[in-house]
Amino acid sequence: MRSLGRVLAVAVLTAVVALGLHSTLTTAAGQSPSSVSDTIEDPESGIVLDFTVHGGTITAATPDGWEYSIEGTARPGETISIAASGHGTTWTGRHHVNEDREASLDIWFDGTDVREHVTLPPGESGSLGASYVVPPDASTVRAVATIGNTWINPYGGGSRTLIVRISIEVVEPETVTTEPPTTRPPPTEPPDDEDCDYPPDYYQPTGGNPIVRFGDLHGEVNVRPNCEDDDAYIFAELSTPLHHDDRIRTLRRSGAILSYSDMSTFVMREDSTIVLDIKNERESKIGLVAGTIWVNLQRMIEDGSFEVEMSQAVAGIKGTTFVARESGATSTVRVFEGVVEMRPNVGEPVLVGPGQSLQVTAEGAGPLTAFDMDGELEAWDDTVRRITTASMDITATDAEDGGAGLPTLAVGVLVALVAVGALAALAWRRRAGLRAAPRLDLERN
Question: Domains of the chain (ranges plus CATH)?
Answer without folding.
Answer: 4-170 (no CATH), 212-434 (2.60.120.1440)
